[in-house]
Specification:
Length: about 290
Amino acid sequence: MVIRIDDITQRLSLEEMMVQSEKMLSVGGLAAGMAHEINNPLGAILHNVQNIRRRLSADLPKNLETAEQLGIELDTVNRYLQGREVPKLLDGIQQAGARAAKIVTHMLSFSRRSTRQMAPCDLPALIDQAVEIAGNDFDLAIGFDFKGQAIIRQFDPALGPVPGTANELEQVLLNLLKNAAQAIHQREEDSEPGRIILRTRLNPPWAEIQVEDNGIGMSENVRKRTFEPFFTTKEIGQGTGLGLSVSYFIITNNHKGQMEVQSAPGQGTCFTLRLPLAQPQLVAAQPIN
């Protein structure tokens, strides 16, 4: 009976991954077309905001010359604009445009297939590098001291270099570290100290990486939608809903691996990445009869 339950659980997990992969391939094609269509008008918006600022500046001789020809004091115009908070409105347009541009960049990276050559990657070194970058990047971004969290490393010494594209894997790890940090930050103030566990494991035919946190966790409904493009539980302006989608695409499409998540409310979250081993490692890992 136990074997039967395990088989059913494994089958359901496999079906869930297959459905998610189909979604990602479909959305990948749409994302490329959408991104290029959005990019042109978006570029015009940001360029014109910059031009408006330049044409209101008293530092440009052409502006002063035109104002004098029309009998207008440029300083008076700028005082009026300040009084009506027009510069703040321009700031809002520029910030919204920059956010949209970031989404477009994510969409393009989501849709592109990797053409880079796979090379042996030292996973512990990649993980350490991602942790260092995360510590410098996320402190101010989310108002949270990433470096103050306990980072526990559990690296399998039997796992050697794994084929991969280092910068893409680093991007995935950064996304997972960011999500872990935010999940810890959202807990109650009297919770236990924040903890992120980073694991590697040799589990033929896979090399496994796990990023586990003791954050707020997520419901089953949210967990099932974790890798959907544009799905996010964050407030408006705090997330694009593409970070984990791009990560899933990098692992499953570009590296022919697997990515899954286990979580429950109040129980933290654990992301598992599986990357195919190189052939020599597969042979070495096989038991001798």
